[in-house]
Amino acid sequence: MSKGQSAGIDGGQCAQPAGHDEWLWTRPAAAAQATLILAHGAGAPMDSEFMTQMAQLLAARGVAVLRFEFDYMAARRLDGKKRPPNPQVKLLEKWRGVYAQVRQQVAGPVAIGGKSMGGRMASLLADELGADALVCLGYPFYAVGKADKPRVAHLAELQTPTLIVQGERDALGDRQTVAGYPLSRAITLHWLASGDHDLKPLKRSGFSHEQHMQAAADCVAGFLSR
C-alpha cells in the first residue's frame, strides 16, 4: 500500500506506506477541524496504548491525528532490538520531513506535538516550521532526577500557540518546579491533579487514568478549535 492510500484502523483511517515511513492516521467520522501530527516518546512506539487511546479520543472530538515513528523505533519494529533514540539532529530531520509531507496533503490547520520526547522535539521546530499550534503531552522539562538542569531555554522565546498537558507529579516536570520557569506567554499549561508522566493519577486523588485521558483530549480539542 503506497503513501496516501488508507485502510480502516481503530475506528479511523490508517495510511500505511512500506518500510520505515509507515504512518497511522486516525480520522474523525466528519470533516476534521484540525490535524495533529503526534510523535511518540523515547521508549514506546506510535501504536502504544497511550498513543492509540489519545488518537481515538481526539478523533472522536473532531481532530485528525497522524502518528509516525522516528527511525530508531521503526528499526526496532523490524528486528525487535531496542535502541536508544537517534541523535537530536536526526530526530529533527525526521520531523521536518513528515511535516512537509503532511502540509502538502492536508488542508486546514496543522498542529505538531507529541508525547514526552516527541513533543520536545516538536517544540524545537514549531516556530521554524510555522506550525499552527504545538501540543505536548507530558513535557520532559528535565531528565529524571535532574531538575537542576532544565531544558527550557527555547520555551521562553516560543511564539507558536502552545498547549502543554502535564501531570502535577510528573517526574520530568512537576507543578512546583515548572512554576519557577520563565515560559513564553504563548504557552498554556493545563495541569492534571496528581498525574504522572503518563497522566495517570494516584488513586487517592479521586480521579482515574481514563478521566485524565478524557480531560486531556477535551483540552487539546478545545485548544485546536480556537
Strand content: 15-25%
Q: CATH superfamily, called what? A: Alpha/Beta hydrolase fold, catalytic domain
Distance between the termini: 35 Å
Structural class: alpha/beta
The average pLDDT score comes to 91
Shape type: globular
Q: What pattern of helices and strands is seen along the backbone?
A: EEEEHEHHEHEEHEH
Strand order of the largest sheet: 3-5-4-6-7-8-9
Specify the CATH class.
Alpha Beta
Cα-based radius of gyration, to the nearest Å: 17 Å
- Total strands: 9
Helix content: 25-40%
Write the CATH architecture name. Answer: 3-Layer(aba) Sandwich
**CATH level 3 topology:** Rossmann fold
How would you characterize the largest beta sheet? 7 strands, mixed
GO molecular function: hydrolase activity
Pfam families: Abhydrolase_11
Keywords: Hydrolase
Domain KANL3/Tex30 alpha/beta hydrolase-like: 33-224
